[in-house]
Design a protein that fits this description.
By secondary structure, the chain is mostly helical. Helix content is about 70%, strand content about 0%.
């Protein structure tokens, strides 16, 4: 892994931790209680925006093909796995472990 990718991963992890911390403090819950759900949101959002698009992308490609006569490859799904997505998946998996520990009662609930 290159130094550039490692720095990008660290910065992305810090940003995800900060956003999760602010969400947890806004709702007055523990950080680990929100970590799983924000991890899903981060990983899903990054996957959506770094993939080849969805139905809207295919509609625009069809319109361009109809107007110009140039056929574009629109049926092929492409995805670029980058360091930010890998960081989001790691954050999600850590959150999943904490969430399972909370559900199973290994980590006690927050005392009022």
């Amino acid at each position: 892994m290159s130094r550039k990718n490692l720095i990008i991963m660290i910065v992305a992890f810090i940003v995800e931790v900060l956003i999760t911390y602010f969400i947890a403090s806004f709702f007055s819950v523990r950080f680990i209680e929100v970590m799983f759900f924000t991890g899903i949101a981060f990983a899903g959002g990054i996957f959506y925006f770094s993939s080849s698009g969805g139905a809207i992308s295919r509609v625009f490609a069809s319109q361009v093909s109809g107007q110009t006569g140039i056929i574009q490859k629109r049926e092929q799904f492409t995805y670029k796995i980058g360091p930010i997505f890998i960081t989001s998946v790691i954050f999600f998996l850590i959150g999943l472990v904490f969430f399972l520990l909370l559900v199973w009662g290994i980590i006690p609930p927050k005392e009022a």
